[in-house]
TrEMBL record:
<protein>
    <submittedName>
        <fullName>Ribonuclease 3-like</fullName>
    </submittedName>
</protein>
<dbReference type="GO" id="GO:0003723">
    <property type="term" value="F:RNA binding"/>
</dbReference>
<keyword id="KW-0732">Signal</keyword>
<feature type="signal peptide">
    <location>
        <begin position="1"/>
        <end position="26"/>
    </location>
</feature>
<dbReference type="GO" id="GO:0006401">
    <property type="term" value="P:RNA catabolic process"/>
</dbReference>
<dbReference type="GO" id="GO:0033897">
    <property type="term" value="F:ribonuclease T2 activity"/>
</dbReference>
<dbReference type="InterPro" id="IPR001568">
    <property type="entry name" value="RNase_T2-like"/>
</dbReference>
<dbReference type="InterPro" id="IPR036430">
    <property type="entry name" value="RNase_T2-like_sf"/>
</dbReference>
<dbReference type="GO" id="GO:0005576">
    <property type="term" value="C:extracellular region"/>
</dbReference>
<dbReference type="Pfam" id="PF00445">
    <property type="entry name" value="Ribonuclease_T2"/>
</dbReference>
<comment type="similarity">
    <text>Belongs to the RNase T2 family.</text>
</comment>
Length: 260
């Protein structure tokens, strides 16, 4: 009796250790997210021609867009992708989120499109590794974007879009720390090889339940130079279609048919 009552907790502990170590033996296991928020002003200003078109679903928000909510493995610093061999994506599952998706998770690339392909790619690459259902995956990503509210955060620190002003990378990073801690990585692009750094993406580390912003478990350095442009984005001026795609009117059909 005495021996039994002592042995029981030990056995229980052993069982726990065995159970919890079993999944760790699987190859790559997702244990945190990178939420990638993209500034369309920089995206549109890369390459020789403006590469942006007005989505068929209407004018997007003047704000950072969600680009993806990526599943990562902190043990090797690599993304965990493609967890379902036959990936099923349904726009119907996103019905209740559609206005937010059109505003904040839209695809401004050319030719004008309804964003569906981008959502499907993100879902099939990362969403299927998240242990969430499709609705919840997109809902959490949108909620995190709203919670972080990067544009307001930067503005509160005097960092606003401007076609000629150069900001110190350090000032951008410092503006994020009081609210977001050490959870962010700032990424830049350039209009051309010798061009100036342009604030392009801010990636934010998020807990695996997609509820809490966390200090990044892996270190990624910024791809920006020490001086950074934060270019304006004007959703009203996005052209429909593009000079390159006028021959393909099928791509330019209007909003998504929810029953497809
Ligand atoms: C999706 O997951 C959320 C959160 O776990 C849950 O509340 C919701 O009922 C699920 N929806 C479907 C269609 O399974």
């Amino acid at each position: 009796m005495m021996a039994g009552s002592k042995a029981l907790p030990l056995l229980f502990l052993l069982a726990l250790v065995t159970l919890s170590s079993a999944p760790a033996m699987a190859t790559s296991k997702f244990d945190f997210f990178y939420l990638t928020l993209m500034w369309p002003g920089a995206y549109c200003n890369s390459g020789l021609f403006s590469k942006c078109c007005r989505p068929t679903t209407g004018k997007p928000a003047l704000d950072f867009f969600v680009q993806s909510l990526e599943t990562y493995d902190s043990s090797n610093g690599e993304p965990v992708t493609g967890c379902s061999t036959d990936c099923r994506f349904s726009v119907n599952a996103l019905r209740k989120l559609i206005d937010d998706l059109y505003a904040y998770w839209t695809d401004v690339s050319c030719p004008s499109n309804n964003g569906r392909q981008q959502w499907e790619n993100v879902w099939c690459s990362y969403g299927t590794c998240s242990n969430f259902n499709e609705t919840y995956y997109f809902q959490r990503a949108l909620a995190l974007r709203a919670q972080v509210d990067l544009l307001s955060l930067l503005k509160a620190n005097g960092i606003v879009p401007s076609s000629d002003k150069l900001y110190k990378l350090e000032d951008i990073q410092d503006a994020l720390i009081p609210t977001l801690g050490f959870s962010t990585v700032v990424e830049c692009n350039k209009k051309w090889v010798l061009g100036e750094s342009q604030l392009y993406k801010i990636r934010i580390c998020v807990s695996s339940d997609a509820k809490t912003i966390i200090s990044c478990p892996i270190q990624k350095s910024s791809s920006c130079g020490s001086k950074v442009k934060f270019l304006p984005f004007n959703p009203k001026q996005l052209p429909v279609g593009s000079a390159h795609n006028m021959a393909n009117p099928i791509e330019m059909t209007a909003a998504i048919d929810m029953d497809m």
